[in-house]
Design a protein that fits this description.
Blueprint lengths: L4 E3 L2 H6 L6 E3 L16 E2 L2 E2 L23 E6 L2 E5 L1 H6 L5 H17 L40 E6 L5 E5 H14 L3 H16 L9 H23 L4 E2 L5 E2 L2 E5 L17 E5 H7 L5 H9 L3
């Protein structure tokens, strides 16, 4: 059995109210916490088995008994607690920084003017503009003025189907950056690649119905939801540059570009898979398709 039993309501954790944390202890009062130096250890490492506490915890939630310990993830059915050094080593915002962002976001939302949008109060986008809250029911075009926030302009539709709104100042800056990039070698190369893709791929001639398009968007929404959960659990993949990236990706079952066979950017040709496997798969096609293509008369 766990040596410490208690419940940490997520609402109490998010509001920073330690008094509201209910923990049953025999030798400690409900307010004072033990210093980090007294946390159980196995050699130099924390003894995770002895740090288990009953209840559900949000990512970065403080340990109810030991000062300086925060909930990181669940591994093999056990809670994993860590110091802020864990987040620093991963290049992530530390729990203290996350809590401060949450506090500032809540304070801003309580006192913000009516003509400014709300901020996310938790999650990986804490402190940023809540794009879901300002989404409009129709499909706006680039440069449209938001009906409720006159200083905000619509910029583009994201890959997950969400809308991206910017302040007028940020919108103009982004437009200038895009215009300047088109004049660089990298920008010209990207434009040439898109033009070649239009000539070589049938994807630009193939049009999805509204229902098929929504099905395709749903796949990306599911992938983003899974990645959000994976981020909260500390699951990350590795990119070619060694930096952290999402653990899951949307894969095209038959690749969009292949010298023998090209698939469609359509809901029946996509699947969610681990990002590492997706990178290994690259633009390969199924072995049985390769054999069938080899047997075709030249």
């Amino acid at each position: 059995m766990f040596p410490l039993m208690g419940v940490v309501p997520i609402d109490n954790y998010l509001s920073g109210n330690r008094i509201g944390v209910m923990v049953t202890q025999t030798t400690l009062n409900l307010v004072t916490k033990l210093p980090l130096s007294e946390a159980p250890r196995r050699g130099k490492r924390l003894n995770q088995k002895l740090l288990q506490v009953a209840g559900e915890f949000a990512h970065c939630a403080p340990h109810p008994t030991y000062e300086g310990l925060f909930y990181y993830c669940t591994m093999r059915g056990e809670q994993w607690w860590a110091t802020e050094e864990r987040w620093k080593d991963k290049g992530l915002s530390t729990p203290t920084e996350v809590h401060e962002k949450q506090r500032k976001a809540r304070e801003y939302n309580l006192n913000k003017p009516d003509n400014e949008p709300p901020l996310y109060e938790d999650g990986i986008a804490v402190g940023k503009v809540n794009q879901q809250a300002i989404k409009v029911a129709w499909r706006p075009t680039n440069g449209d003025i938001h009906p409720n926030y006159p200083n905000w302009r619509y910029f583009s539709r994201q890959r997950d189907g969400s809308q991206w709104w910017l302040t007028l100042e940020a919108f103009n800056k982004k437009k200038e950056q895009d215009k300047a990039r088109k004049k660089t070698p990298e920008g010209r190369a990207a434009a040439a690649m898109r033009r070649a893709l239009r000539r070589l791929s049938i994807n630009y001639k193939f049009k999805l119905t509204e229902e098929q398009f929504d099905d395709l968007v749903d796949v990306y929404l599911d992938c983003f939801a899974i990645n959000d959960a994976a981020v909260g659990a500390g699951m990350y993949g590795r990119g070619f540059n060694g930096r952290s990236r999402y653990a899951f990706a949307v894969d095209h079952i038959q690749p969009l570009i292949n010298k023998s066979l090209c698939g469609l950017h359509a809901p029946w040709n996509v699947q969610i898979m681990e990002a590492g496997e997706n990178m290994s798969k690259s633009n390969k096609i199924f072995e049985e398709y390769e054999k069938a293509l080899a047997e075709l008369p030249s």
